[in-house]
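Module 6 notes. Inverse folding takes a fixed backbone as the condition and produces residue identities as the prediction. Think of it as a translation problem where the source language is geometry and the target language is the twenty amino acids. Below is one complete input and output pair. Work through it position by position during the lab.
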């Protein structure tokens, strides 16, 4: 890879680290790994969660992309692609269903306003 892309990769990976740390700090005591049906938490929609329903996963994906740009090779490309796909499938097939069952209409309304990874939805 050209040196400029490597430096861009460093910046993207550092942004990913920052996004992940911000998501954990915003979540505070409501942080959990995976779906824990017996842990009662609150729905967090403030801070970074105003622009991303899954900022921790966004952070992971940015780190994967940054590392890929820093040390590009085909094996790393496929590992990064597989990791991102697995995270996405976890969110879509497990976590979102759990959040709907846990928080009901509050999560459904939040989902209508905030994109899965980045951005707010435009209301018509």
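Target side of the pair, the amino acids:
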């Amino acid at each position: 890879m050209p040196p400029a892309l490597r430096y861009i990769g460093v910046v993207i990976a550092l942004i990913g680290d920052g996004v992940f740390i911000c998501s954990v700090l915003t979540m505070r005591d409501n942080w959990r790994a995976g779906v824990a049906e017996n842990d009662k938490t609150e729905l967090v929609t403030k801070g970074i969660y105003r622009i991303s329903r899954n900022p921790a996963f966004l952070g992971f994906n940015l780190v994967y992309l940054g590392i890929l740009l820093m040390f590009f090779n085909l094996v790393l490309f496929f590992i990064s692609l597989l990791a991102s796909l697995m995270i996405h499938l976890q969110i879509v097939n497990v976590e979102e269903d759990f959040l709907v069952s846990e928080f009901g209409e509050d999560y459904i309304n939040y989902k209508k306003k905030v994109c899965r990874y980045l951005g707010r939805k435009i209301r018509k």
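Reference fact for the lab report: DSSP finds four helices and no strands in the chain.
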